[in-house]
């Protein structure tokens, strides 16, 4: 299974962001479906079935050791000329700690992980089909976006089902495999 650990924003936060995005959405970018909006904490890639029981146990421990915390969707940014995202504000140290714990849980369970980097919280909104499409108008329009705070109380393990149909523009489908309450 192709897996990642994530924080999933609640429906109310998604609706607020969707209203802001709808005001700037056009066909020059490929927009991520709202059902796919999440904060990836640790991307694991393809995980062998025999590793799953240990991974589940370690992620459950990571969640149990982490207290719930406040977060909100905030602003807008980009990676290069291709990806447009919204960030997070609130208890970012707690979010980074949860990301570190999810990464460590995967490593200790035997999942080969990429080199660990400082976590940059972001939720991908759109991707440019062409490097020549300017992102500046979208960045300016969404720069002042401030969502309502919510309590992050769950660590989710999500399966990414990659498009298989070959239909242009088809996006991955995400399915929550397991979820654990944060307990602190």
Q: What do these coordinates show?
A:
The protein is 27% helix and 34% strand. It is of the alpha+beta class and 184 residues long. Strand 4 and strand 5 (83-90) form a beta hairpin. Helix 2 (52-64) runs antiparallel to helix 3. The mean pLDDT is 92.
Give the structure's gist in a few sentences.
It is built from 4 helices and 9 strands. With 184 residues, it is of the alpha+beta class.
From N to C, what is the helix and strand string? EHEEHEEHEHEEE
- Helical content, roughly? 25-40%
Query: End-to-end distance, in Å?
Result: 29 Å
| Average residue pLDDT | 92
Specify the number of helices.
4
Structural class: alpha+beta
Q: Which of globular, elongated, flat, extended, rod-shaped describes the shape?
A: globular
Write the layout of secondary structure elements.
Layout: E1 2-7, H1 11-22, E2 29-31, E3 39-46, H2 52-64, E4 69-79, E5 83-90, H3 92-108, E6 123-128, H4 136-142, E7 150-152, E8 154-161, E9 173-181
Helix pairs in contact: 2-3
